[in-house]
Amino acid sequence: MILEDSSGQRNTSKAELRSKSKMTEQTLFVVKPDGVQRKIVGEIISRFEKRGFNIVKLKMFTFTRSMAEEFYSAHKSKPFFEELVSFITSGRVVAVVIEGNNAIATTRLMIGSTKSFEAAPGTIRGDFGLGISDNIIHASDSKESFDKEVVVLFK
Description:
Blueprint: E1 2-4, E2 10-12, H1 14-21, E3 24-31, H2 33-37, H3 41-50, E4 54-62, H4 65-71, H5 81-88, E5 92-101, H6 103-111, H7 124-128, E6 137-139, H8 143-153
């Protein structure tokens, strides 16, 4: 609802500001090979559904090397790039696009710190992760990352 003040200026109502802060958006997460091998895919997806997110797309597959290099291209110059590509191509993964209020930020909070040993209990990595690479899950960290990653995985 748009309100006008006595000068004719349009102001956004508090309710509209609240609804904008809870914008529905999409994000992507990938349950990595360690999560698939340990048979915790259902538990992970269930956590997102219990938080009110809707599944938009879901796909199980194995990354090819070229897909992995494109997917993790932002890390190409980093010393851990080869280990990252090697790990993500080592087995099947499950990629999921979800939709809901503040999906990107909420997902990042739900998964926890990249380093599983630093992730808080109650987060996905805190509860299930075993290390840095074998940290169970990847999630888009921004709208820009989501836009790039979803194209790589759901061509």
